[in-house]
Specification:
The protein has 460 residues and is an alpha+beta fold. It is 25% helix and 35% strand. It folds into four domains: 80 residues, no CATH class; 55 residues; 195 residues, no CATH class; 97 residues. β7 and β8 form a beta hairpin.
Length: 460
């Protein structure tokens, strides 16, 4: 028989040995833990070890906590616990201490890191603020022809922003006064744009615009190629304003709903673009594959009179095309000074192309280079340029599928003028026939110089 005392109410109870190690309930409602005989004998408590839990409070009852009861005047609550309960208590206390240590150490780390984090956020915000200011500065600063790499964040001037500033300053002056000559009108516009009108930019500043032109790679030649004559000056739509549609009717009573819109488009009117050689850049295939998506053409230029022009066209609705559109075209006239090939990923200026000097030899060399690229029709292209009493003469020679051309030119008024020449035609039997060429280009006739030759010479 085991003797158990309820530590809550002090009532003593006798419990059969078969209930040792279980939980029981006192008449006061407290839960009593009944120790087994081994626990009692191991720790010398006889049969008087008691562990009990507080009985549940009745609803609305507010009892003050009672002091733990002591048994036999020794040990207190700790001495009333079983070995397992003591182990759990010690383990729980150790876990609490460990958790507190971790929290304290983590708190110190957070406190130590909080300052730099806060400073980083402040710095980031300052960088962001400086970035916006830097972007605004870059957008309104002139190009430096000495740059070997682009400033960080600079991808060319924004032509639409420039248009807005130009329109703000000279938009009301675009229509020439009937009493002004064209020169007088240009002088008035130039005077309005002589002071800086966009940051530090004025009419004489050096501008840089990214222009649209496909840059292709030839694995056979191992080079990039870009024909500059095909560069587009279109910079895109400024505004598109759809308006309220209406129902229109023609003379035959056919009705159609007509859409109405106004569109404004911006262009660069690029002058002297023909003064530049086509862009070619030798590069290995692997490097070219990585570089192609980042390559851009940057047009380096000055503004030219009249600085901003406007033209308008209209489309009247028809039954097949029921649209009434107003197209307004704004053009910014510019004069090309240089053309840069740049890589936007590393900001490198890969190539700077400058206008060629229109001397007799360089012009003929350009023509030879242009004909060589037409390798499918012209072979062995050569040119013999020599001084003459009245200037310069040249003979342009190449083979074509039906024979050999030897074309005569003379340098007159800054360009090569066709003077004739000969065509040695190869007959089917192996015979050769010499035909004197007319001083004209054409598509037909053995005595005409092929029209592709004319297009090989640069137009000034």
């Amino acid at each position: 028989m085991l003797h158990v005392t309820c530590s809550h109410c002090g009532k003593k109870m006798a419990v059969r040995d078969e209930y040792a190690g279980r939980m029981g309930k006192c008449v006061c409602g407290a839960v009593v833990s009944i120790p087994d005989s081994e626990q009692l004998s191991a720790y010398g408590f006889g049969s008087s070890l008691v562990v009990c839990q507080e009985p549940p409070k009745a609803r609305g009852e507010d009892h003050a906590p009672e002091e733990p009861r002591r048994l036999n005047g020794s040990g207190g609550l700790w001495s009333s616990m079983s070995v397992k309960q003591r182990t759990w208590a010690l383990g729980g206390a150790a876990m609490i201490v460990l958790l507190l240590v971790v929290i304290i150490i983590h708190g110190i780390g957070v406190a130590g890191d909080r300052g730099p984090n806060v400073r980083t956020k402040v710095a980031d915000s300052n960088v962001a603020g400086q970035g916006e200011a830097a972007q605004a500065k870059l957008a309104s600063m002139p190009i430096d022809l000495g740059w070997q790499e682009l400033p960080l964040g600079f991808h060319g001037h924004d032509a639409k922003l420039l248009y807005e500033e130009l329109h703000k300053h000279i938009g009301t002056m675009l229509d020439k006064d009937e009493f002004d000559t064209a020169e007088q009108h240009d002088a008035k516009l130039g005077a309005a744009l002589a002071p800086p009108f966009f940051g530090t930019l004025n009419k004489d500043s050096m501008y840089g615009f990214v222009v649209q032109q496909e840059i292709t790679y030839s694995a056979e030649k191992g080079e990039f190629d870009c024909p500059l004559r095909g560069v587009s000056g279109c910079l895109g739509t400024i505004t598109y304003r759809p308006e309220k549609s209406y129902v229109g009717e023609n003379a035959f009573g056919v009705k159609k709903e007509v859409s109405v819109s106004t569109e404004e488009t911006l262009f660069l009117d690029i002058k002297k673009l023909g003064d530049f050689d086509d862009f070619r850049l030798q590069m290995g295939a692997n490097e070219a594959r990585a570089a192609k998506q980042h390559l851009r053409l940057l047009l380096i230029c000055n503004l030219s009179p009249p600085y901003l022009t406007r033209s308008t066209s209209w489309h009247s609705p028809t039954i097949d095309d029921p649209r009434r559109t107003t197209d307004i075209f704004y053009e910014i006239p510019v004069t090309a000074r240089e053309i840069w090939v740049v890589r936007l990923d590393n900001r490198q200026v890969v190539r700077k192309m400058k206008p060629w000097v229109a001397d007799p030899k360089s012009v003929m060399e350009r023509a030879v280079s242009a004909l060589e690229r037409q390798s499918w029709s012209f072979k062995n292209v050569t040119a013999d340029v020599r001084p003459a009493a009245a200037g310069w003469n040249a003979t342009l020679s190449f083979r074509e599928s039906s024979g050999q051309y030897n074309i005569a030119y003379a340098w007159e008024t800054g360009k090569w003028v066709l003077k004739g020449g000969s065509f040695i035609k190869e007959e089917s039997g192996g015979e050769r026939k010499t035909i004197q060429l007319r001083a004209a280009y054409g598509d037909y006739g053995d005595d005409a110089v092929p029209h592709e030759v004319e297009s090989a010479f640069p137009s000034r």
